[in-house]
């Protein structure tokens, strides 16, 4: 019985993870479509080529428009905790 309970809980965890991933994908697709349709100031996070760090690609907030990614936005204000992590 314990093995069945463990297996059921494991499957529920996998399903929950998939739902969150699907939800995030749906939000991003919705933002892309809004931008392509000319809705102004559509912002979403994306993994893009960037000059914010020395890394060639970085997850950043972007502004989406009719041509896709119109602008990669700055990081904005960081908390002390985030500033400390940024140093490392």
Automatic annotation (TrEMBL):
Keyword NAD listed: yes
Domain of life the protein comes from: Eukaryota
Lactate/malate dehydrogenase C-terminal domain residues: 23-85
Gene3D superfamilies tied to this protein: Lactate dehydrogenase/glycoside hydrolase, family 4, C-terminal (3.90.110.10)
Keyword Oxidoreductase: yes
Pfam family, one: Ldh_1_C
GO MF annotations, alphabetized: oxidoreductase activity, acting on the CH-OH group of donors, NAD or NADP as acceptor
InterPro entries documented for this protein: Lactate/malate_DH_C, Lactate_DH/Glyco_Ohase_4_C
Transmembrane segments: none
Protein keywords: NAD, Oxidoreductase
PANTHER family to which the protein is assigned, alphabetical: MALATE AND LACTATE DEHYDROGENASE, MALATE DEHYDROGENASE 1, MITOCHONDRIAL-RELATED
Name under which the protein is recorded: (rape) hypothetical protein
Protein source organism: Brassica napus (Rape)
